[in-house]
Amino acid sequence: MRPLRLAMVLGLSLAVLQPEARADGRSDDAAEQAKLAAIGLAIVKEKCARCHATATDDKSPHPQAPPFRDVVTRYPSENLAEALAEGIVSGHPDMPVFIFEPEQIEGFIAYLDSLSPPETSPPAAPAPQNGNASKAPPANTGHGSTK
């Protein structure tokens, strides 16, 4: 096999074997995202749970701290990476400043993504009532008689 052809075959093989990545560079591999979300949950329980609700149905201990399930609907998780790296600063005086390492940011974002409501498909067109679909008359194609 020629070197160029071999390189192309190897390159394609590697591309097929690697998990898909999203436009923001994060993996679409469900197992990897679940592992990262578990890391994120551990961080959230350690640093955030004293004020924020961390599950899908609990109440925040601090009345002015939004549940994380609401945070993820207000702010796309991928937009939070820079703020997490530089230090989240809130207008609320009780909110401490946290600075996260890149691995912690990946985990935190995966955790937030796990709280995102499922994406819904647009509603399907309603089915015709009683099987009476409106039918358009056949188009006049200019062929045949026009009686």
Task: Characterise the protein shown here.
There is one protein chain. With 147 residues, the protein is mostly helical. It contains five helices and no strands. It has a domain of 94 residues: Cytochrome Bc1 Complex, Chain D, domain 2, CATH 1.10.760.10. The chain starts with a helix and ends in a 32-residue tail after the last helix. The chain is 41% helix and 0% strand. The longest helix is centred in the first third of the chain and has 18 residues. Helix 2 packs across helix 5. The N terminus and C terminus are likely disordered.
The level-1 CATH class of the domain at 22-115: Mainly Alpha
Separation of the first and last Cα atoms = 70 Å
Give the name of the CATH architecture of the domain at 22-115. Orthogonal Bundle
Percent in helix? 40-55%
| CATH topology term of the domain at 22-115 | Cytochrome Bc1 Complex, Chain D, domain 2
Number of strands: 0
β content, as a range?
Answer: under 5%
The number of helical runs is 5
Going by CATH, what is the homologous superfamily of the domain at 22-115? Cytochrome c-like domain
Q: What class do helices, strands and sheet pairing give?
A: mainly alpha
Which segments are poorly predicted (pLDDT under 50) over 5 or more consecutive residues?
1-24, 133-147
The run of helices and strands is HHHHH
Please tell me what the overall shape is.
globular
Rg on CA atoms, Å = 26 Å
Report mean pLDDT, rounded to a whole number.
Answer: 73
Largest sheet: none
